[in-house]
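Below is how a single chain appears once it has passed through the pipeline. First comes the sequence as given, then the structure the pipeline wrote out for it. We keep one example in the README because the format questions we get most often are answered faster by looking than by reading.
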Amino acid sequence: IPAGKALLTEAIGTTTPDHEMLFFAYYSTKQWDELVGTARSRVTAQDGSVESRFRLAQALAAASRFGEARAEIQATISLHPEARTEGDTDFASLRVIERALVQFGV
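Resulting structure:
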């Protein structure tokens, strides 16, 4: 992992570019800060699209940063009212995940 990060830094100047395979690599290796960073890069690259912002909320939730995930969903709905239904679904999913983690003792 360190060698891969060094290569990315040398070649493109960051370990968190907007790249789908890196997003999943960081998720699968539980590198939460990098996962969130990659999702934030996508938000920038896609000019704050609904899809990219909801992906960022998912990354924040995966990193157990639930307050930030909720805030991102709310901000997305505020900026894109047409996304309310999807945002409400994400809020509901987030609540279920939080409750399940409490049950698991996490």
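The chain has a mean pLDDT of 94.

See the next section for the split statistics.
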